[in-house]
Amino acid sequence: MARAVLLFRLIVRSMVRDRARALLTVSAVALGVAVIVAVDLAGEASMGSFRSSLEALQGTASHEITQAGGIPDAVHGDLVRLEEPLVFSPRVEGFASLVETGERVPLFGVDLIGDPTLGEKGSMARPGTSELLDPDSVWASDSLGIAPGARLAVVGADRRTELEVRGVIETSEAQADRYLLMDIAAAQRLLGRTGRLDRIYVHAPLDETRDWEERLRPVVPPGAAILPSGTRTEDNRRMLRAFRWNLRMMSYTTILVGAFLIYNTITAYVVRRRQQIGIVRAVGASRTMIRSAFLFEGAVFGLLGAAAGLVVGRLLAIGAVEAVGGTVSSLYVTSTPGDLELRPWTVALAVLTGVGTSIASAWWPAREAAGGAPTEAMARARLDTQVRTASGRFTIVAAVLTGLAIACCFVPPVDRIPVGGYLAPILLAGAVALVAPRLSAVVLRIAGRALAAPFGVIANVAARGLAASLGRTSVIVTAMAVATALVVSMGVTVGSFRETVVDWLESRLQADYYVSPAGPGGRGAGSTMDEEVAARLETVPGVMDVGRFRTHSLRYDSIPATLGLADVALYERHPGVEFLDGSVPEAVWAELARGDRVIVSELFSYRHDVHRGDTIRLALGSGLVELGIAAVFYDYSGERDLLLGDREALLEHLPDPRLSSAGVYLEPDADFAASHATLLRAVSGRGVKVTPTRTIREEAIRIFDRAFAITWALEAIAMFVAILAMAEALLNLVFDRRSELALLRMHGASVAQVRRLVLVQAGLLGALASGVGLVLGAATAQVLLRVIHKQSFGWSVQLHWPWELLAGALGVIVAASVVAGLYPARVGSRLAPVEVLRAD
Amino acid sequence: MVLRFLDVEKHYAVSDQRVPALNGVSLDVGEGEWVALVGRSGCGKTTLLNLAGAADLPTRGEVEIEGVRTSSLDDDALTELRRHKIGFVFQFLQLLPTLSAVENVELPLQLAGVRRARPRAREMLGRVGIAELADRHPHQLSGGQMQRVAIARALVHEPSLLLADEPTGSLDDEAAGSVMELLLDLRRQLGTSILMATHSLEVAAVSDRRLILRDGKLIAGEEPGGL
């Protein structure tokens, strides 16, 4: 009890008295926690959406059977005839566009008559036989808000159809899935997949544990995959994991920057209460008590920050879920954001992060406070002297950390998570923190001399004042540098990536127009159109070539991949693929035309460690096919493995001639604008769209920019916290050096000169941090591009320096630093010299 | 008259209470005159020096520096007055620790925007006898040397009034004697008026005139016998 009273007197009273500073510190923790909570909530909500729509119809299946190019209907018949207590649920899965709203919703075809598992959930009223037999019957999930009996115009594949809504399927409020359900035969027709199933779920009796896969294998084609049920959801989850990890790591930067602020605050409290500490120690307080008091103070900051961070994070998540959900839909898998749910884990994460970071940040100052003898209470000068004398040792440790960071870059990913890559920037930031005192001292000494000529003695005094407070200066420089490095590294990374993608889009999309099934498109659309569309396009005057393209989903080495079938003969005339390994394009096309070769994306090559000349075994159609790798090509279309082969040759294994898209190449002298109308006329009556390549490029870049919008937001918040830390540090500096400011005033310094002094210090800190941040950011960008991106996504990105953006950002940071100095400058200039000198 | 106090009162507010520091003080300091202000700790010596140096304003009454009433000036004008007319020497907190001796000395000149301040600062360090220590920092100087630097800084801009607050209070006898000799010598050379607060009668003895301050009031003065 006595200790609690002491804690209250020593800590809480001071916090209450110094409300503004306490509020600033709590705000920094709150923002750090809020960002983490928002990213976690938004990520979970985006994940939850696609999980729910798939799992809603999956029931209690134990396995699922899939096959590249679709499973022939007959296989289902063979399975049903098996004398085993198994129930099979065939599925056709695709997307349909609602003509009225343009919304693209999942469309599932199920066996409404023969599938006993559909009744298990009781979510849909059993329809009558006549309704089932009607190929225009459709059932809509309640969240679509379509009343039974309504006519619904949709485009499935390339055909527009009018359906009748026979009923509404209840979905849980939390999932709020939006989808359509049809009988399997009707869905096959609507989606252009007659005779093919996308998936067969296998329901095994729960009380029997047999190797069902072994039992099923002889019945299904060799090319079919029998996977544990939920594999696709797991695939999506795995695919999104890297994306979420990258966001998550970025979200932790704010709390890291906030940690410097907490350290600064507690150090300032320790310094200011050095007399109190000395007295309390002299009258019998133990070191543990003093240490506990300051750690308790850190914990209070953390707890208050975490509580506020949860509230703010929940609000930020509303915006974040839109950004993350949009990116997930565009780049990964179509999904509808789920509800934001504040789960116990999220609350625990917030509290642990807030309190943990705060206590860790308070550790060193608390140790220092408890370390001295009762008569030797900690003085600011002692801290600065310690920092100065240890700076040589710090530099050696910084060199070791840099070496470790470089070593980390060579550590292979763990389950596709670039652990070494994440560790490297943290180690580099640690190295910067350690080298900051020495670097700051040198730079400030030079800056003081350099600035004295143009800005007078005030600039010199300002620089020397900072150099004399190395303990504080180096901490704030590190905090600002970390935030700046985040801006620089993301600027370089995103700038480089964007430039690379723009170049790639320019070279990859060689056709003038692309024709594809109507609807917004997107990942996993899988819609197809009749080959006749391409034939019609070929007859249009001014059209030189029409390239047919079809994609199939398959798995290689248990990882989902997309196989693209292209008219490779056209690539000779319209080269659109660039190779990593220096392969000669003409030779590659000739090899592909033989039909026993494919080219693979960089990601595929990296992930499976296969290269030109290797042979891979793919499950294509009903069989397993051995294909050689003719070359490895650059691809930035997404995170899915991609293989390309000759359509003509591979139709032997995947005989479905329908197309995913067609590229239209115009004659060089063709009228581009007029051609659009002509092409539209040629395909009128088919549910397809004709998109100019420029529009596709613009859309791709828009999606790209949207994907990174959230990262810019995270950076802005981290920078804001760094600016708060800067303001707080300058305020502390003013307080610590108030006697010197008073002395200056007594010797003739005007209010304006004192104000200028503090502003010069703010500008110097901003400039120093920007310089250090630029170096740290450039190094981090290399790690991001060459390690984290490579290991997460398998992309080679050409380094581009967005100089204008960087110059602008660094200018803004220095300007923001000066703005952060305004209030401390005001405080410093308003100090009454007589009062200060009397008090000291 | 360099300095004139006319029935000056100064009160401080401490926790809603008015604490009088000076009460009805009137005094004059003539050109080139050395006046010692003697009294115990807390009698109001430093307050009086602050008012004399235009670092603070009286609650009542008037302070005139070379005929200019400080209460009629705004902060900028008071700063200007301090820059050109006043030099300060304190017992503690003498020098800016981050600046060398010569940089400390040139500080008032630079703050006033004087160009080529360095030669004047070096010359002044020569006058106080420590030209060879010009580039040392405060932590490399002894107490007496620091005080000489402080005196050089207080006089480098040739003020009409030097205000010294216990200038020898933190020095040993030898150093204190040396500093007093230096002040006497400089006054002879520059003709600067000096108002010096001290509690040492020995130190006060070198002055032209001594004023005794007790509980914020001047109670006696003029002659050593009055002490």
In short:
Helix content of chain A is 60%, strand content 15%. In chain A, the strands form three sheets. In chain A, strands 16-17-15-18-14-13-19-12-20 form a nine-stranded mixed β-sheet, sandwiched between helices. Chain A has a six-stranded mixed β-barrel with strand order 3-4-8-5-7-6. Chain A has a two-stranded antiparallel ribbon with strand order 2-9. The longest helix of chain A is centred in the middle third of the chain and has 45 residues, at 287-331.
Assembly classification: heterodimer
CATH architecture descriptor name of chain B: 3-Layer(aba) Sandwich
CATH topology of chain B: Rossmann fold
Question: Quick one: which chains have the greatest interface?
Answer: A-B, 28 and 28 residues
String of helices and strands of chain B? EEEHEEHEHHHEHEHEE
Keywords:
heterodimer; A: 840 residues; alpha+beta; 27 helices; 20 strands; 60% helix; B: 227 residues; alpha/beta; Rossmann fold; six-stranded mixed sheet; 10 strands; 33% helix; globular; disordered C terminus
